[in-house]
């Protein structure tokens, strides 16, 4: 898993280096990879979208949050199942959630909770691939043998040119996920770190004046490829190269992109409402990006980085085994910033009339074991509670997408162990996302061996979210 690091342009550049910067703006694409992807693209049909103005924000909770301490509490279960926290009522009749989510409770009429999604893989990388691609894998290669949802959306919408990156994420790939046979051109424009930090610069959009002046000569740069095309283009595989370069150069010089990434355009009150922390400012940036035209945004909410906390009692993500952290101390630290960021994003989706254009999905790769375990912490050295991996039940929050809100979809058994009513698969959620985006889930890509692979092998849109 890559850390959140920013890469800055070093200053004077050769023309070759400049072209490489353009490719980097599209997700690290180099010329050899571009040639490979274009050769592959000759065998792939286009699949033009009919809903190009829609967008999805994925808040990814790496490690797998506990459904029993968020959206599916079991107050009547035995104490070693229900845990230490209590449910609270919300403004949506019949919906109760964790007491650590009071701001969620005020906007519950603007989201729906799916409680009956489950799958079969309890390993992080494979579980992520299962959830985000709809396919089972035995690989833990972070590139993945199957493309996940973000790269698929990027590939299906690569024809769009809207002045902002089509796919943005706060990390290059989900744990265990990636673009697979779609190639590096389908990877995200990466914006790591805290986009709200003073002096924060977005990589590849913070270029020197000298380099920007050189960018103005786009026609000359494209002509530089003419001779190479004559020498190497034997089968038409480079005929889209000009378009790719124009997209890269357009992004690097786009005032619209710079404006979208600039959080100082927001009022202090708005930034405070989201929270002056990494998670809040990432959520705010996600909203600005989809308003500007980005199709798919993945923002990670892993380590809350709250000052003054006991680091030996918290974990770097939501994988809160007893050996990793004290479940209830950890949740006491991470839930307030999570509550603030997500609730503010939901408020804005509706207040800014984005609810028919934007769908928000909040999830991790699986849930946690319904029964609490107590073990010595690796760092704390004391006995502490935790929950282990559990794909048999999990909760997913969905907001917007033009769908009915204020509802609970499905249920789990009395101890939160398994889906009980309206059992759903991650593929059903993905089918819902693709339907909303106007993407045919049966559209086929060729894998590395030349086999046609549909976007989803199975799954149907969730009827309650249509």
UniProtKB/TrEMBL annotation:
It comes from Gimesia alba. PANTHER family: BLL7424 PROTEIN, DUF1501 DOMAIN-CONTAINING PROTEIN. Pfam families: DUF1501 (PF07394). The lineage of its organism: Bacteria, Pseudomonadati, Planctomycetota, Planctomycetia, Planctomycetales. PROSITE patterns: TAT. This is DUF1501 domain-containing protein.
């Amino acid at each position: 898993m890559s850390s959140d690091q920013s890469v800055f342009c070093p200053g004077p550049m050769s023309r070759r280096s400049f072209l490489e910067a353009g490719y980097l703006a599209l997700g690290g694409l180099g010329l050899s990879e571009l040639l490979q992807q274009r050769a592959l693209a000759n065998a792939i049909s286009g699949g033009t979208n009919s809903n190009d103005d829609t967008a999805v924000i994925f808040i990814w909770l790496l490690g797998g949050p506990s459904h029993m301490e968020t959206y599916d509490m079991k107050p009547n279960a035995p104490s070693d199942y229900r845990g230490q926290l209590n449910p609270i009522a919300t403004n949506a009749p019949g919906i109760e959630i964790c007491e650590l989510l009071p701001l969620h409770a005020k906007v519950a009429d603007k989201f729906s909770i799916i409680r009956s999604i489950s799958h079969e893989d309890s390993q992080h990388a494979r579980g992520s691939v299962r959830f985000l691609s709809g396919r089972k894998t035995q690989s833990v290669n972070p590139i993945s043998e199957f493309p996940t949802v973000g790269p698929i959306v990027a590939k299906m919408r690569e024809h769009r040119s809207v002045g902002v990156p089509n796919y943005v994420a706060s990390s290059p790939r989900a744990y265990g996920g990636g673009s697979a046979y779609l190639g590096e051109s389908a990877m995200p424009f990466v914006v790591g770190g805290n986009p709200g930090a003073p002096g924060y610069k977005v990589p590849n959009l913070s270029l020197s004046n000298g380099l920007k002046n050189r960018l103005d000569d786009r026609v000359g740069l494209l002509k530089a490829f003419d001779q190479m095309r004559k020498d190497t283009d034997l089968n038409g595989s480079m005929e889209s190269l000009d378009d790719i370069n124009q997209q890269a150069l357009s992004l690097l010089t786009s005032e619209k992109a710079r404006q979208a990434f600039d959080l100082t355009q927001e009022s202090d009150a708005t930034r405070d409402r989201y929270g002056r922390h990494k998670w809040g400012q990432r959520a705010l940036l996600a909203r600005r990006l989809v308003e500007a035209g980005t199709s798919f945004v993945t923002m990670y909410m892993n380590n809350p980085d709250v000052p003054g906390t006991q680091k030996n009692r918290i974990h770097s993500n939501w994988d809160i085994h007893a050996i990793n952290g004290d479940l209830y101390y950890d949740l006491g630290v991470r839930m307030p910033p999570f509550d603030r960021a997500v609730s503010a994003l939901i408020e804005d989706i509706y207040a800014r009339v984005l609810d028919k254009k934007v769908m928000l999905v909040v999830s991790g790769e699986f849930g946690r074991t319904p029964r609490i375990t107590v073990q010595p912490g690796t760092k704390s050295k004391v006995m502490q509670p935790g929950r282990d991996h559990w794909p048999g039940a999990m909760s997913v929050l969905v907001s917007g997408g033009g769908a009915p809100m204020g509802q609970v979809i499905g249920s789990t058994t009395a101890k939160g162990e398994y889906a009980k009513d309206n059992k759903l698969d991650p593929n059903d959620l993905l089918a819902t996302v693709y339907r909303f985006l106007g993407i045919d889930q049966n559209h086929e890509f060729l894998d590395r061996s030349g086999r046609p692979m549909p976007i989803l092998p199975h799954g149907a849109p969730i009827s309650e979210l249509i």
